[in-house]
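Is this the right way to post structure tokens for a design question? Let me know if I should format differently. Anyway, here goes:
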């Protein structure tokens, strides 16, 4: 079964991108996430791009062909994983040529100063492109948990400058972003369900959102029920402890010689409590045929006497 991240990426890979500006923005983020650039002997640039997801590889290839800058030479290699349960790798090689130089210039990855490590502000002037850029980043190095495994969405990259760029962008959209490092990777993450939903909606993952939201709702109902049960258990525990303490006190008091002088009403109350340790105050009031406040008053009096008795014994 594909992972939830894989499902999201599969859906995003079919997102229909029609604006050329957005196409450049998404491709730039995608390449920055998982691509490396190579320089040929003739000083032309080439790109190596790898992904675990076949649909992402296809999308990147389609983008490279759809940029209308001429025939870019590409090669797709599938690397089979030797380890079981590890996914295959798809490597796209874009052969070095003047067209690739032009493409990287158009994307702002190379500029007059040479390589631009990750400041893509020129690609991000329009709102539409910002969304596409985040989609590219997710397709390249994103992952998201299914909500039943805890809320977590992350974008991880080995490029520090680029992670700063993504952080700035996510902050602009007021996402509550956390950041950390893992091995050689800079990781930005979201932990709140609402933020994850907004992010997925922003980058165009509408179908998986339905699944995400229904799992989240189910989880929240389950949590709510658990909270209620825990709360009731805690209350019950308190009642049981209180009545146990009372019963012990009453027994002690009735055993005491001086208790012979105990008024009948108090004696009755003490016995009622001993015989009915697990009933509530109102039920005890019913048994005794008096009001709740009356029972409360008598019980307090009995407890005070028991306390007094214990004090005297300890002297
Ligand atoms: Zn755009």
């Amino acid at each position: 079964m594909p992972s939830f991240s894989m499902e999201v990426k599969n859906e995003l890979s079919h997102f229909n991108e029609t604006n050329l500006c957005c196409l450049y923005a998404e491709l730039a983020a995608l390449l920055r996430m998982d691509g490396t650039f190579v320089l040929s002997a003739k000083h032309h640039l080439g790109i190596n791009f790898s992904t675990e997801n076949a649909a992402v590889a296809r999308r990147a290839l389609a983008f490279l062909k759809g940029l209308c800058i001429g025939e870019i030479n590409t090669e797709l290699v599938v690397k089979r994983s030797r380890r079981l349960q590890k996914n295959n790798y798809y490597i796209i090689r874009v052969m070095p040529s003047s067209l690739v130089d032009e493409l990287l210039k158009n994307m702002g990855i190379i500029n007059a100063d040479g390589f631009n490590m990750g400041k893509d502000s020129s690609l991000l002037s329009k709102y539409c492109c910002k969304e596409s850029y985040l989609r590219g980043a997710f397709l390249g190095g994103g992952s998201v948990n299914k909500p039943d495994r805890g809320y977590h969405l992350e974008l991880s990259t080995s490029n520090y400058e680029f992670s700063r760029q993504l952080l700035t962008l996510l902050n602009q959209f007021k996402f509550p972003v956390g950041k950390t490092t893992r091995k050689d990777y800079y990781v930005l993450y979201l932990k709140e369900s609402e933020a994850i939903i907004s992010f997925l909606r922003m980058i165009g993952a509408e179908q998986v959102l339905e699944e995400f939201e229904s799992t989240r709702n189910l989880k929240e109902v389950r949590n709510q029920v658990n909270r209620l049960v825990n709360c009731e258990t805690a209350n019950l525990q308190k009642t049981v402890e209180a009545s146990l303490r009372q019963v012990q006190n009453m027994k002690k008091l009735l055993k005491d010689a001086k208790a012979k002088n105990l008024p009948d009403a108090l004696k009755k109350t003490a016995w009622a409590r001993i015989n009915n340790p697990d009933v509530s105050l109102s039920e005890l009031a019913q048994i005794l045929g008096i009001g709740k406040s009356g029972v409360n008053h008598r019980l307090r009096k009995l407890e005070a006497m028991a306390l007094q008795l214990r004090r005297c014994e300890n002297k």
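Format looks fine. Someone answered above. Worth noting: Residues 45 and 100 are 6 Å apart (CA to CA). The longest strand covers residues 89-97.
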